[in-house]
Amino acid sequence: MSRGPKAKLRVVAEDGKAMAAAPKPPTHVPKNARDVWQRVTVVLQSQGRLTDANRDVVELYVSAIATVRRCQKEIDKASAFFDDPKGGPPKPHPAFSILAEAEKQARMAASRLGLIEESRDAKNAAQRGVKATGGTADKWDV
Fold first, then answer.
1. What is the pTM for the complete model shown?
2. Burial of 136: CB neighbours in 10 Å, binned 0-12, 13-18, 19+
3. Are 68 and 60 in contact (CB under 8 A)?
4. Cβ burial, residue 62 (10 Å; 0-12/13-18/19+)
5. In angstroms, what CA-CA distances link 48 with 11, 23, 91?
6. Per-residue pLDDT tens for 16-57?
7. How far is CA 97 from CA 72, 92, 100, 102, 127, in A?
8. pLDDT, tens digit (0-9, with 9 covering 90-100), for 1-19
9. In this structure, what DSSP letter does residue 92 have?
10. I need a surface site. Which of 34, 92, 110, 138 has the fewest CB within 10 A?
11. CB-side exposure of 126: number of CA atoms within 13 Å?
């Protein structure tokens, strides 16, 4: 069972055509990540890889980067470690666990968008029918 209001469904273009221009960031994109939205959408659009179908992944990537930035700011403002009130060893800032999860989400989204060179090389090789490491691709290569 999910919580909160039911998400509004929207039609996504199925033609897979690239957008003609990089869209403006949605209003819910945090201000501390609007520069990331601009940079990523311009890069993807110029490469012909920005489509309606992957726009949600761009939003996920930008949101994850915003969370990373916010966590890092909190850690820098306070301290990376807190003294244990019971006299034990220092404990890491609670934001570290959120930071680690947000970094993982950002890497996953960046890989899906082809922003990471290794993932981009592997996708291009698979489309050409060649393994990224050389040789010909078979059904087990991604």
1. 0.69
2. exposed
3. no
4. buried
5. 21, 13, 46
6. 566 767 788 888 888 889 999 999 998 888 888 888 888 899
7. 11, 9, 5, 9, 37
8. 567 676 554 444 445 566 7
9. E
10. 138
11. 10
Residue pLDDT, tens place only, 50-104: 888 888 999 999 999 999 999 999 999 988 888 888 888 988 999 999 999 999 9
Residue 106 region by backbone torsions, left for phi larger than 0, else alpha for psi between -120 and 50, else beta: alpha
Q: Which two tokens stand for residue 76?
A: 């820098």
Looking up tokens 């819910």 gives: 28
Identity at 17, one-letter amino acid code: K
Amino acid letter at 63? Answer: S
